[in-house]
Amino acid sequence: MTPEELKHLVRTVPDFPAPGILFRDITTLISHGAGFSACIDHLAQRAETAGAEAIAGMEARGFIFGAAVAARMGLGFVPVRKPGKLPVPTIGIDYALEYGRDRLEIDPTAIPEGQRVVIVDDLIATGGTALAAAELLRTAGAAVSHALFVIDLPDLHGAARLRDAGLTVDALMDFPGH
Question: CB pairs under 8 A, 24+ apart, for 101-106?
């Protein structure tokens, strides 16, 4: 399936989580066996082109796509977790959200110094979480130059923020509007 065909598997839910928002729900893509497999194939091809030696994904939907891409490529997966979820000493980063703050953590021993890690997530909106993940992975010693997404919401300028921070950004599809 082409990315354009995959785009038709994404459900749009109006007025969620607030009036005026068009929520792009990937549940319908994940539940479509051939579509999900094709999506992972496209992401894996792009990660291979980027020279990935490992894949990182942010909790929670980045785990779905990132782990599947890593498995398809025969690579390791680095989970970028919410705070307090890992049973070993971690390093973390606090970052700003539209309304408040959040934190990401990783096990720094999961990444050999200089390993080329590609970030994979379901959606890029404002880019805050992906920027924080890239900084955290770099702090742990990873070489992070690429971030791959299933969906880009270009009107929120997240991909542009990542590019401004030196990351190559690629998405299988985009949905203009919020």
Answer: 102/129, 102/132, 104/58, 104/80, 104/129, 104/132, 104/133, 104/136, 105/80, 105/81, 105/136, 106/56, 106/78, 106/79, 106/80, 106/81, 106/136, 106/137, 106/140
